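Researcher: Batch entry, complex prediction.
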Amino acid sequence: MRTPILYRAATGIAAALMPAFAFAADTVAATEQQPTNWNAIVMFLIFAALTLVITRWAAKNTRNAADFYAAGGGITGWQNGLAIAGDYMSAASFLGISALVYTSGFDGLIYSVGFLVGWPIILFLLAERLRNLGKFTFADVASFRLQQTPIRTLSAISSLTVVAFYLIAQMVGAGQLIKLLFGLPYDYAIIVVGALMIVYVTFGGMKATTWVQIIKACMLLAGATFMALMVLVKFNFSFEDLFAKAVEIHPKHLAVMGPGALVKDPVAAISLGIALMCGTAGLPHILMRFFTVPDAKQARKSVLYATSLIGYFYILTFIIGFGAIILVRSNPAYFVGGDTTKALIGGGNMPALYLADAVGGSFFLGFIAAVAFATILAVVSGLTLAGASSISHDLYANVFARGTSDEKTEVRVSKMATVGLGIVAVILGVGFEKQNVAYMVGLAFSVAASTNFPVLILSLFWKGLTTRGAVVGGILGLVSAVTLIVLGPVVWKAVLGNPAPIFPYEYPALFSMPLAFLGCWLFSILDGSAQGKAEQAAFEAQLVRSETGLGAEGAVSH
Amino acid sequence: MTTNPSVQKIMDDPKYRELVRKRSTFGWFLTALILIVYYGFIFLIAYDRDFLGQPLSEGSVTTIGLPLGVAVIVISIVLTGVYVRRANGEFDDLTKQLIDGAK
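Model: Structure tokens for the complex:
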């Protein structure tokens, strides 16, 4: 029995679980409220208590703006690497990618790889330069030699767009997940997420946000490692035996070992690749993590640790997915009506959770469910802090007050913005409960790749960029990304119910990103103003600082 | 900002040119390498799935695609390590000399 409402609720969960993709929209799942799961609730309460203790500690050590926005620059490379990895190891990649491996095998690997390859590029081209030029937000970097007001306004608009869509998808996902895993009503989950996130961010700032993410990353890595080990032990660590058994059980048999139908044509594949790769390099909540480390050396190290952990984690999810083919597919207890040819109880994103039950019993399932909730909470906190920084540091301090506000007021504005964003997120989370929000994270990645990324890259590497070029190019990227998504399959067809999309691809980045670059280039070379000339002349000095770190004030408070 | 004497001094230092040239060449070279590896993999998926789907050895179910996919992940990590090693050593030493020289 699946009603359209349940279907839409299920696609909501899919949205939060699969940040960059809408492909899960077809895994129909009924998210009916499940019996109350006390194991999961108790374990989540322990996690919440621990994070609140940390927030108290962080609050005591958060005195000025540098502490609030960037943890006083006191995060080491290793800690930051864990936090970045935590931002990336969302409930999405854990439940979503293992579910994808469970249904189509090899195809899951394509997504893991796409998610990972953005990181080396961020390291080679961005990480240390960001650290050397910026203080609290990436707009510090983009507006280094350009005009403050227009560049920061543009950056704030695109950052808030990215944050808002990401937040809605995460909130809706949290509500659905909790209904399913904890057996608690949807609204409770939304309010718990909103309240805890406001507490972490307003009292503990970046320090608390980072440590919540680190703790969650450790819990998730430990849980996933345990699951993968339990699967491998059953096959004496022979991958060939594991795959052979999976091929025997899976209805598609040998087809799960090679590429399937997921990547239809090269244009779609490349457009997705660009959205994943360049979108990552333009996500404000990821970029802000480079300001929490003391120097460029630690910034580089943090990317190395993050890339290694993320890579390791994706290999685990692959093993978990194959383990689920064997241990979940053959167990009627996990299927609707006890029939293994029907859908999984709770829907398409459940394989990793049932595998947890199969290898570790209901206690371990409770642990994994608590980790999944903690994951959403940690990601949401980072997003909110990024949004609040944009409002207070970019819009309030540098645009509205034109640099005349003092630090105390700025931090106060940031805290008010956090409370405001938290309340808005709760209201939107409740409002969008029954909506299909699958397109929202795709929109977030595409906007990040088409606005933040081109402006950031050109301001760092191209002498010729002027304010006029950056603003025109950035707006072109923003508007075209949003428009093409609305005209594309996920909104035009799936949400608005039109028979065929006007724009054929889910991810517009292949088109909107070059358009942004083109706009930046064209309007910069046409810009003959004295202001533009001065901005180009300031490039050499910016380059010296971005290459050597000379004069970088950074966020170090002591 | 160009009036800052340290900045001018660094810009005139031949070591600065050397640092910028070496590091950007290295960074863009590795970027190109990652792009080739990743899009090579994607193009194989788009154009030659049979290649990726063939067995690794006679009679095995493990396909060529699996170790290749894992290899893309491992190469990403290794190249990241290669960059960090050189940047935190050679490039940072050069940078330190430059900044000390400009003081």
